[in-house]
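re: ur question from yesterday

yeah so i grabbed the chain u mentioned. its 110 aa long if i counted rite. heres the sequnce exactly as i have it in my notes:
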Amino acid sequence: YAGTVGGSLYALDLKTGAVQWQTKTKAAIVIPVVPVGERLAVVTEDGRFRAFQASNGQEQWVIDLEERVRSQPVVAGSDGVVYLTDLKFRVRALNALRGTIGWTALLPES
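ran it thru and got these structure tokens back, copy pasting raw so excuse formatting
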């Protein structure tokens, strides 16, 4: 899976590189796309966290994080939780399967 600064999200065939499907977001995708089960976790430049169905690219939900993200999303475990950090030094735990925010922690700036 690959995202572009033009806001396109692509699924590519791993053997041939052929495009399997393409969809468009409303903002640039500048952080790598992260697979989470049957979903794709996508962070866009406008501070939104989106989930797409991996099989067809259909958008499942959008969470407005109210700030741009500064880290690649990290998946730990099999429960669908994705962790990321924004520009206000907040770490968030987001459920990529349900589209909910689990918790937010504020980090010290120093």
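noticed a couple things. The mean pLDDT is 92. also The longest strand covers residues 100-106.
anyway ttyl
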